[in-house]
Write a structure and sequence with these properties.
alpha+beta; about 45% helix; about 10% strand
Length: about 425
Amino acid sequence: MPTIGAALVAKMKPDGTERFIWDDELAGFGLRIRASGSAMFVCQYKIGGRTRRITLGRSAVVKPEEARRQAKAILGDVARGMDPAEVRDAHKADITIAELCDLYLKEGAAGLKASSKEAVIRAFDCHVKPLLGRRKLAGLTVGDVDRMQGDIAAGKTAIDEKSGKARGRRIVKGGKGAASRAVAYFRMALAFAVRRGLRQDNPASGLKLFATDHRERFLSPAELARLGEALTAAEQEGEHPRFIAAIRLLLLTGARKQEILRLRWSEVDIEGARLRLDDSKTGRKVISLGAPALAILAGLMPDKDDEDEESAELPEFVLPALRGKGPLVGLQSAWERIRAKAKLDDVRVHDLRHAFASVAVAAGESLYLTGKLLGHSRPETSARYAHLGDDPLKAAADRVSQRVAAALAGPKKKGEVVELAGKRGA
C-alpha cells in the first residue's frame, strides 16, 4: 500500500470506477476516488462490531497532512472507546433554536390559551429568533441566554417599520419587561427540549430575570372627569363609536381588554345583566353588569326591521372589526389619541381595569366583592387594592376621633364652644 500524500493525490486519474486507496502507515486512513475522478480523504474504523467511515474532506480542498492529523485524532477517540461517527450524526441531527421554537409551538404549547400562545409567538418572532435563531440547540449556553436578555433590554431587537398591511406599521419595543417575558417563554421551550431528549439540561432554568415594575396606575375622580370629557369630545370630532364604546365598557365593567374586544353576542345576557365568557385568562367567567354598561350594549345592538325581527341574527362580535372579519383592532391608537386629550399620557388601557377597582374600593365595597367583580380566581390578587380603602378609613377615623374629643371635653356649658382636635385656630 502506498503512502497517501500530495504526490499520490496529484497522480489520481478517473478510470470510470469507484475505488479506495489505503495508507500504508496509518491503518484506516484512505482516499476514496469516485468514478468521476473526484477524491476525498476518509477514516475507517471498527467499533462494537460495526464498520464506520467518516469523510475528512475533498482532496481539492484539504491537504493530505491535515487529513492525516484528523484521522489520527479520530482513531485516538476510537481507541478510548468513543464513536466519532455517532457524535457526527448527533451534530447533524441537532436542530437550531428557530426550529426548536417552531417545534414547541406545534407540539409543546397545546395547553396554552390562544392569547398566551400569541404572546409566545410574538416573543419568539420578534426577539428570540433574530438573536439566537441560527444557533444550534446543543451548543446553547447560559451565557447565550443571558446575553439575549441583555440585548432585548437594550433595545437591539426594537423596530418600527411599515408592515405589509395597508397603512400599518410593525412596532417592536425592547426593554426589561420584554426581555424578561421573552426569556420566560424561551425557558418553556427549552424545558420542552429536555423532555423530548433534544438536550440534557435547560440553560435558562437558573437565569435570573430582570425585575420589572408592576405599575398600577389609579385614576382620581378629577382624572376620570377629564377622561369623560375627552371621550365626549372625541366622539363629536369623529372618533369611531366602537372605540369609544370599548373604552367605556372597560371602565364600566373592570374587564380585561381582550375580554371586551373579543366579546361575542352569544356571551351577552342582557336580561340577567351578565357577560358569560366562554374563556378568559382565568377560564370561564361571569361579569356582572351595571345599568350604564347595559345601556352601552343595548346601543351596540344592530337595528332590526320589524318584519325580520325574529329571523335576524346578531353578528358574531359585539365590537366587530372596522374592515374585514373578526373582532375590533386598533384600540391602542385610538386610546393614545383620547388620553392625550385628557392629559393622561401615562395611563395604559389596562389601567382602566384598575380605575374600576379603585372606585369600587373607595366607595366602600369589600375586597371580596371587588375581586368577584374583577373575576379574580384568588383572593390575594385583590389585596393589591387594599390601600385604596385608606380614604374612607381616614374619614371614619376623623369622625370617631371628633366624637372622642367631644366626649373628653365633657358636656358643653351654655355659650361655650368646645375646640376639637385638629380644629384649633391660629
